[in-house]
From TrEMBL:
PROSITE patterns: PROKAR_LIPOPROTEIN. It comes from Bacteroides fluxus YIT 12057. This is Conserved domain protein. It comes from the Bacteria.
């Protein structure tokens, strides 16, 4: 009778649960892939970036990308059969030691958590704002370290154990190797275009090194205008340190129509461009 009672209790326990699910494991093959500066993407390429509308307004975020600039970081995830993840995270720091530790809680470390564009739809994309890197400039940082994590919620055990034995949320996390990115050229921030009777831009330049030239490039045919196209220079104070300057170049194009416009700034370390924007001259 005792064995029969135990058996019946087991049957009732399983009956109260959902069907047994296949256990899901986190992917074992994943890494941080390409890191691309937004200034290298055409207007249409930014427009076509995949953005998860469940968490943010895609149109607003694209405009913020064009104004603020930054990096697009691509995660490379190759899940095998039975592997999946629920959430992807990326951290940024100017010190590798401050990134979350392998095997540790995902919130550990003194680093910025970077915004996810696509969540779990395929390999994730992340948007690193220029300000996220500029905020490390007090340390004169020029090399940044990135680390990605994949997270799984309530999937450590087969489904009937999850449903019957665990009521609270729990998660598992695996980390990628660290990838570094170097930037010594100036940052172009808060970039806005002006259109109508004239063509103009306004933006702030931040740099660890003296800025020697800045202004805007524009073209009605080249989707990534540079110094080989039309250029409007902004006069800098040659006596100033010029490591943080507000820039407001203006131009009067000969032809009306739509122009592709990029701000630029030059230091001894090279040239930086802002993401491309569009402006119409009447």
């Amino acid at each position: 009778m005792k064995r029969l009672a135990i058996f019946l209790c087991g049957v009732l326990l399983l009956a109260s649960c959902e069907d047994i699910d296949e256990a899901r494991m986190l992917p074992t093959e994943f890494s941080i892939g390409d890191i691309t500066d937004l200034s290298e993407l055409t207007y249409d390429e930014v427009e076509n970036l995949a953005i998860n509308s469940d968490y943010q307004d895609p149109s607003y975020l694209r405009e913020e990308m064009r104004r603020t600039g930054g990096l697009i970081v691509k995660g490379a995830v190759n899940p095998k059969e039975g592997e999946a993840y629920d959430y992807a995270r990326l951290w940024l720091s100017d010190k590798e030691s401050e990134l979350p530790a392998d095997g540790g809680y995902w919130g550990s470390g003194n680093a910025y958590q970077v915004e996810t564009l696509t969540g779990t739809a395929g390999s994730p994309l992340f948007y690193v704002r220029s300000w996220d890197m500029v905020n490390f400039q007090e340390n004169q940082a020029s090399i940044f370290y990135y680390k990605m994590a994949l997270e799984s919620w309530n999937n450590e055990y087969p489904g009937f154990l999850d449903d019957c034995l665990y009521e609270d949320y729990y998660s598992r996390t695996v980390f990628s190797s660290v990838k570094s990115y170097s930037k010594e050229t100036p940052y172009i921030l808060d970039c806005a275009v002006e259109e109508g009777g004239a063509l103009g831009m306004s933006f702030t330049v931040r740099s660890n090194y003296t800025v020697t030239q800045c202004g805007m490039c524009y073209s009605n045919s080249n989707q990534l205008p540079d110094l080989k196209d039309k250029v409007a220079y902004y006069n800098l104070d040659s006596e100033a340190d010029n490591r943080e300057v507000y820039v407001h170049p203006m131009a009067l194009p000969e032809e009306s129509g739509t122009y592709y416009v990029r701000g630029f700034a030059v230091s001894e370390k090279g040239i930086s461009y802002s993401p491309v924007q569009k402006a119409t001259i009447y």
